[in-house]
Amino acid sequence: MENRTYTRQQVIDILEEIVGKTLGQVDKNKVFDGVVDIIKKTGIAGDVIEQSVFGYKPNTEQEPDIIVDEKEVEIKTTGLKRTKGKKAKEYPIEAKEPMSITAVSPDKIIHEEFLTSNLWHKLEYMILVYYLYDSETTVPAIGYADFPIQGYQFHEFNDLDKKTIEKDWKVVRDYIRSLQSLDDPTVEYPKISKLRDKMMYMDTAPKYPNPPRFRLKRKVVTAIAQEYLGKDFEILEAEYQFTSYEELDRILRNFSNKYVGKSIEEIAQIIGITLKYNDDGVVDKKINEQILTSAFGVKTGKLREIDTFAKMGTIPKTITLTSKGGRTEDTKFDTIDFVEWSDPTVTFEESSIYEFFSNQTFLFSIFEEPYDKSPLEQNIFKGFKRLSFSEEFIYEHVQKTWDDVRNLLMNDKFEVTEERDKNGKVIINKKTGTVREKTNFPKSKDYLIFLRGTGTDSTKKTLNLKGYQIYQQQFWIKGSALVDMLESVDFI
Q1: Cα–Cα distance, 314 to 327 (Å, whole number)
Q2: For 72-86, what is the mean pLDDT?
Q3: 3-class secondary structure, 313
Q4: CA angle at 11 for the pair 73 and 213, rounded to the nearest 5°
Q5: How confident is residue 99, by pLDDT bands cut at 50, 70 and 90?
């Protein structure tokens, strides 16, 4: 009979023995032998830890895995990957993917309360085992054997996180309960996936008719891992803490009531922030985020350095409207991982761009120019708007860009050509003397989500793609489209 009862010290002894070894090296029960010819096997790393390290068979029941000092504990094995781009300077790793927890069981959840729910039963006490997904490309199941085990931790959520998770859970529970008076509630179950914009730490996947599961968002898992590795997130003072979007909006509304109609310069003076100017006498744009963080009692740092914001995956953005209410510029988002975009085994729903648009909210600080091309510090604060992108937008516009870029990359259609003026003459960059070039990636004139490169100058093109040396590429959203979407959203 398999043993599932341990002391904390016994667990530590078991896990200390495997840290630094690869998953293949600790696979004494030959789990990998069963996946030699399998391209993709969900949870293969967890299978190795459960079956070869702890020696028990897969647990398909909605109950934790082992008993540690009389507490029921769930073991979760999760992959970390190296962070790319500028973010790598702040933190070198991030979670590879969201963490699946337990099934959303409509017939059970309608009768549950949170503290005795299957979800909290799984989350209350956890052991997290981390491995490094040490590959630039997607590997088959057997490839996980080469990935090193990085460490482990006993994890318990703090009270604030617990309240946030409870409210997320209730969003789903209460929705399913509301359907029970229908003749056939299952008809409405596909809409469970659309509840994500009401949930801060969790989402559900996959979509009906496949049985969905509760998941911790990738940002939550990333923050937990980064804290384990020593990163300190700022904890909000009690009066600024929140555990739901309703509570968040109340804080933002209080700030707006004080400062709407005032200029950046006036707000900075009132809250005690000194404007910083560059050598050209232009105010540093960081002032916009400083104003946002000051709404939460924080006058320095970035929103993602605050614990709750780091976990909920809210991205702060500033949009400045012209004096006539139009857009002033397009908005840049993340740098593209072309290894992923070139991998035929990665589906759209598994991609980082899908995760970016589907599992994060965007908090916009809205400013307006008092006159054409006014200095930044004179722009007027209009308020905050929170935006989540609909499934319709994601599948119509984001996937179109994803599909079209992949078509260029996978079918050798990607090219870089010289830019020419209307007379057919090659355009020369005046600053560097180099020929101006352009890619055939999606452009803003034809796409709402498009690609654009950024770099210091044309002599520093650091990305080699299909034999071409180009700027690092980010995906952007067309400014006019963003303004249109925000117009349909009320100010907080």
Answers
A1: 22
A2: 89
A3: coil
A4: 30
A5: very high
- Does residue 184 sit in helix, strand or coil? coil
| CA-wise closest residue to 452 among 426, 479, 472, 430 | 472
CATH topology for the 238-397+480-487 domain: ECO RV Endonuclease; Chain A (3.40.600)
Structure confidence at residue 65 (pLDDT): 85
What SS3 class is residue 159?
Answer: helix
Q: In the prediction, which pLDDT does 460 show? A: 79
Q: Which amino acid is at 268?
A: A
Spatial distance between the Cα atoms of 126 and 98, rounded to a whole number of angstroms:
16
From the list 94, 96, 47, 97, the residue with the least C-alpha distance to 75 is: 47
CA 461 to chain CA centroid, nearest Å: 27
Strand 66-68 relative to strand 5-6, pairing: parallel
Average pLDDT for 389-402? 95
Tell me: pLDDT of 90 over 80.
Answer: no
By C-alpha distance, which of 126, 298, 151 is closest to 220?
Answer: 126
DSSP reduced 3-state for 372: coil
**Percentage of residues in the chain having pLDDT higher than 90:** 67
Q: Say what the pTM is.
A: 0.89
- In tens, the pLDDT along 21-60 reads 999 999 999 999 999 988 888 899 999 999 999 998 776 6
CATH class of the domain at 5-228? alpha beta
The answer to whether residues 175 and 106 touch, using CB atoms and an 8 Å cutoff, is no
Instruction: Give the tokens for residue 477.
Output: 């959203």
Question: Any idea which residue has 């540690």 for tokens?
Answer: 68
Closest CA to 128 of 40, 236, 216: 216
Residue type, 383: G
Residue-range domain boundaries for the chain = 5-228, 238-397+480-487, 402-479
